[in-house]
């Protein structure tokens, strides 16, 4: 029971912090928030095969084993979210260095037109 | 077992690295291979669609592992139809990109284009929800590159929004998959269909959460209000050929909703009762309304087209949320129409941009080639707003007819008819300001007149318009086909039994599991 409580509250806290940061206005906290959300989802996926301690993720003569499929799913998810975070950091850096502004929302219309005319 | 069904994924997957590695500095060679690849895709897709036309479901087991342990690729009427639509759209978009020189304004356009196709086609063909997630990521990561193709500050900023919004969507998708797996122990679509129906009515928290989350994820892809905020900036700022290709991406969301909510969570399932009528229908009606009001309110042509995409997705989702065979057939007919019409409009907006400083809806001197461009805009606008005689009108009639029997008939009719009027006004205003009033503005003395767009650009746009006309002329046969498609969606037993009973490794129920 202790393990379930620990894992569940870890997922909950990570998600709550992630959602809070995702709702910020600047790219940096939002990227951090999304990273926290992906950590939460990785643990959540891992737990979807049920938690068991000291059991191999493969069938042996022993009767107890842990479901290997969520572990494979988590590996895929980790690789993808890692790559995606790298991409978004690069694009956000490019946008920040280009416009000297780190906001997420649309620029106001007049500024938009000026920027486009210069470009 | 035929291997052709996996070819729409393999061909672009091999072509893209080849273009990067072997033809990196030769735009001519890239163009030849890219076009040849897409023509090959059309041939393969046509063959697959022909094979599936009589209701045959083709299953391909990757690595010969039997479902639900291995990953399967499934071709039925719906998926092969979407594959064919995507390949045909891709050809005209590619021709436009070459004709307008967009592909040469940054690097790796053709490689990213092929990866994008691989992701979209894979998402249509896969028979496994986790694989659907993976193909979503493939198409997204290629679209990130395409979206910021040729750079620029405004485009990069719109790109950041687009990427972040989709990352949140992917995270939600994973949460949904985890909940689904925890409750059922499988992610194969056919297997899920059987197991969800058997689930204990006392223990449905996870499954209901997964159903709602999946709907959210697909609604983000389909740009359903209130999850549409990423679309206007992204589509308006993306390079025109990319925005035109993105016209199929919103349909990936619609396709996923049709597939998952007819197969896994059908409307008669008690667990998810109300999800379609209580939530999806109002959201769809509001999208339709907001999209068309956005058309009227837009100050720039590219935003106007982007909002018309939201509106037409709203129209598609209204038809889908009826969840009757007639509703789904009307939605499928309208999906084909709105993909072609939206792509044509994005390309036409780029034709206009070629001769003007910007796309603001104010009168400016006529653009070069204005006569032909305005004629194309006129036809495409008629199609998009759903005026007779083009396919938008036919599609709208089908949706209205399907909506007549629903409980919300009054709402469906009222919103569709009012929003159509609003969009007609919006497009008419845009067209008259851009093309009609242009004659009354004197060009500045000594102003440099931009050259007219190339013939190939016009051929590409004209081809899309010709397809719209064909979609209208052959509405009868097309509708019979989509009717058969939606009938088979509501009788999924052949799909399920073909997927689960095709023999392969581990086909007898054993304890071992295999994935990836």
UniProtKB/TrEMBL annotation, chain B:
Any GO BP annotation: ATP synthesis coupled electron transport
Localization of this protein: Cell membrane; Membrane
The organism of origin for this protein: Sulfitobacter sediminilitoris
Protein name, as recorded: Monovalent cation/H+ antiporter subunit D
Keyword annotations of the record: Cell membrane, Membrane, Transmembrane, Transmembrane helix
Keyword match Transmembrane helix: yes
Keyword Membrane included in the entry's annotation: yes
NCBIfam families for this protein: PRK12666.1
Transmembrane segments: 6-25, 32-53, 78-97, 109-126, 132-150, 162-182, 210-231, 238-258, 278-297, 304-324, 330-349, 370-390, 410-436, 456-479
Entry superkingdom: Bacteria
Function as written in the Swiss-Prot or TrEMBL entry: NDH-1 shuttles electrons from NADH, via FMN and iron-sulfur (Fe-S) centers, to quinones in the respiratory chain. The immediate electron acceptor for the enzyme in this species is believed to be ubiquinone. Couples the redox reaction to proton translocation (for every two electrons transferred, four hydrogen ions are translocated across the cytoplasmic membrane), and thus conserves the redox energy in a proton gradient.
Stated family: Belongs to the CPA3 antiporters (TC 2.A.63) subunit D family.
């Amino acid at each position: 029971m202790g393990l379930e409580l620990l894992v569940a509250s870890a997922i909950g806290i990570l998600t709550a912090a992630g959602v809070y940061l995702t709702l910020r206005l600047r790219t940096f906290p939002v990227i951090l928030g999304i990273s926290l959300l992906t950590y939460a989802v990785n643990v959540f996926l891992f737990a979807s095969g049920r938690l068991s301690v000291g059991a191999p993720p493969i069938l042996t003569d022993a009767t107890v084993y842990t479901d290997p499929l969520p572990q494979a799913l988590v590996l895929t998810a980790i690789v993808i979210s890692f790559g995606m975070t790298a991409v978004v950091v690069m694009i956000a850096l490019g946008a920040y260095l280009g416009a000297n502004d780190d906001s997420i929302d649309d620029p106001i219309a007049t500024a938009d037109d000026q920027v486009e005319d210069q470009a | 077992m035929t291997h052709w069904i996996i070819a729409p994924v393999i061909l672009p997957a091999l072509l893209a690295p080849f273009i990067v590695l072997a033809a990196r500095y030769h735009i001519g060679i890239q163009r030849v291979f890219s076009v040849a690849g897409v023509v090959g895709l059309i041939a393969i897709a046509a063959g697959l669609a022909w094979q599936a036309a009589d209701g045959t479901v083709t299953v391909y087991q990757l690595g010969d592992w039997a479902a639900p342990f291995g990953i399967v690729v499934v071709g039925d009427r719906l998926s092969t139809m979407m594959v064919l639509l995507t390949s045909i759209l891709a050809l005209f978009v590619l021709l436009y990109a070459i004709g307008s020189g967009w592909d040469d304004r940054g690097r790796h356009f053709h490689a990213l284009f092929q990866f994008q196709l691989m992701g979209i086609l894979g998402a249509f063909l896969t028979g496994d929800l986790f694989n659907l997630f993976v193909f979503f990521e493939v198409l997204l990561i290629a679209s990130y590159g395409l979206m910021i193709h040729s750079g620029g500050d405004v485009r990069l900023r719109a790109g950041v929004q687009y990427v972040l919004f989709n990352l949140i969507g992917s995270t939600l998708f994973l949460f949904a998959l985890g909940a689904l797996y925890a409750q059922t122990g499988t992610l194969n679509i056919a297997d899920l269909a059987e197991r969800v129906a058997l689930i204990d009515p006392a223990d449905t928290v996870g499954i209901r959460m997964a159903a709602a989350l999946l709907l959210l994820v697909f609604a983000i892809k389909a740009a359903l209000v209130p999850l549409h905020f990423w679309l206007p900036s992204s589509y308006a700022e993306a390079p025109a050929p990319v925005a035109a290709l993105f016209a199929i991406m919103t349909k990936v969301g619609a396709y996923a909703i049709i597939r998952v909510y007819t197969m896994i969570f059908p409307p008669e399932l008690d667990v998810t009762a109300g999800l379609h009528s209580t939530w999806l229908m109002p959201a769809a009606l509001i999208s339709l309304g907001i999209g068309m009001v956005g058309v009227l309110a837009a100050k720039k042509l590219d935003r106007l087209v982007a909002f018309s995409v939201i509106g037409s997705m709203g129209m598609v989702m209204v038809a889908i949320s009826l969840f009757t065979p007639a509703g789904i057939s009307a939605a499928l007919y309208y999906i084909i129409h709105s993909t072609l019409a939206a792509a044509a409009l994005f390309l036409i907006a780029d034709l206009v941009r070629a001769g003007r400083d910007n796309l603001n809806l104010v009168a400016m001197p006529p653009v070069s080639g204005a006569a032909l461009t305005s004629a194309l805009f006129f036809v495409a606008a008629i199609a998009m707003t759903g005026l007779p005689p083009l396919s938008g009108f036919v599609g709208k009639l089908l949706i209205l007819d399907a909506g007549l029997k629903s409980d919300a008939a009054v709402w469906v009719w009222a919103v569709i008819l009012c929003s159509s009027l609003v969009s007609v006004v919006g497009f008419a205003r845009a067209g008259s300001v851009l093309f009609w009033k242009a004659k009354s503005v004197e060009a500045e003395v000594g102003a440099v007149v931009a050259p007219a767009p190339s013939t190939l650009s016009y051929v590409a746009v004209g081809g899309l318009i010709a397809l719209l006309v064909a979609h209208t002329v052959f509405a009868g046969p097309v509708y019979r086909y989509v009717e058969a498609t939606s009938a088979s969606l509501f009788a999924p037993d052949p799909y399920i039994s073909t997927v689960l009973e095709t023999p392969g490794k581990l086909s007898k129920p054993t304890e071992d599991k295999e994935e990836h």
